[in-house]
Write a structure and sequence with these properties.
The structure is a single chain. The chain is mainly alpha-helical. The protein contains 14 helices and five strands.
Length: 326
């Protein structure tokens, strides 16, 4: 049997270009060589959105449509919704009994997110303990690899520590999953910071062509280049970051050269990025439109994925219960 891969995403908003370049492109390629499990982490969305759960179902459906539209194939991968497999919650409960609180408090994301998201109260156990649920999500399927960005490595290390602690306390059940680093862990948003729903600086996969072009028009560039005649520095320009990811090498080199010589203005540079971005996303828009009109098809995929995931989850939980003698 081929090696197993598992990863998930929260349905906390519309998916954006950072999700595509940082994760989905990687997932799509992994389908060719691994047994893949991809899940919608709807319970995780509660860790920051517990006060308003009204759109989680809507975002879950939108997220699944974006996955399928960008190349996640449910005939080659197991695609499911976290909450449809209750074993995630059961294993989370059992692991929470053995995890030392200092392990959770030292998680760098814990403090960073509290500073970032000041409009919400994140002093809940659910937010402190979400890495334990994340560990349960992973260990339940005993994957060999977990696709992550560098910012997620502390979470994966906590998963490995929990696996070791469980195996030492009881008996060996969980293998320690390895990381599979994404190619573009950080994609720049329209304000120059990391693209994130929290920052409201995203280019969404569901945005129309006019919306994408308008967002790029307002995107920040080299702050030192005030006038068209000023020479620019692509090394500090967020727009050029998109060229490095999306544009052909010849275009990258030409833009780099012309910007430094003030032979191209920021408006023209942004138009080149917009053209290649639209070309990249247009095929997924067509598939997205087709899928939106087929709710029954989506429901069938979710049910089939739930059944496949549940079979493996039940087997793992049987091992867990035998090891713990409960």
């Amino acid at each position: 049997m081929s090696n197993r891969v598992l990863s998930g995403m929260q349905p906390s908003g519309h998916l954006h270009l950072g999700n595509l370049l940082g994760a989905l492109d990687n997932w799509k390629a992994l389908q060719d060589q691994y047994q893949c499990f991809f899940f919608v982490a709807d319970w995780h969305a509660l860790s920051t959105n517990y006060a308003d759960t009204s759109r989680i179902k809507e975002y879950t459906q939108s997220l699944l449509i974006d996955w399928l539209a960008t190349g996640i194939d449910p005939t080659r991968s197991t695609v499911f919704v976290q909450s449809s497999v209750p074993d995630h919650a059961i294993l989370h409960l059992l692991l929470s009994m053995i995890v030392p609180v200092p392990w959770l408090e030292r998680n760098p994301t814990y403090k960073e997110k509290q500073e970032e998201i000041t409009e919400k109260d994140l002093t809940t156990y659910g937010f402190l303990g979400y890495p334990v649920l994340q560990a349960a999500d992973i260990l339940l399927y005993k994957p060999d690899f977990v696709p992550v960005g560098k910012d997620q490595l502390p979470h994966l290390e906590l998963t490995r520590e929990l696996a070791r602690r469980f195996n030492n306390l009881y008996q060996p059940v969980f293998p320690e999953p390895k990381e599979h680093l994404t190619r573009f862990p950080k994609v720049t948003g329209t304000d120059g910071r990391k693209m994130s729903k929290s920052y409201h600086n995203t280019i969404n996969l569901s945005d129309s062509e006019p919306e994408i072009r308008q967002k790029l028009k307002t995107m920040v560039t080299d702050p030192a280049r005030v006038r068209r005649t000023d020479k620019g520095n692509p090394d500090v320009c967020p727009v050029y970051d998109f060229h490095k990811i999306l544009s052909p090498r010849a275009v990258q080199e030409q833009v780099n050269q012309d910007c430094r010589a003030a032979a191209i203005g920021c408006i023209d540079c942004k138009k080149l990025v917009a053209d290649v971005m639209v070309e990249r996303l247009a095929p997924s828009w067509e598939v997205r439109t087709e899928l939106t009109a087929k709710p029954d098809y989506l429901d069938n995929i979710i049910q089939e994925g739930r059944d496949k995931a549940s079979t493996i989850a039940h087997e793992t939980m049987q091992d867990v219960k035998e090891a713990m003698k409960i």
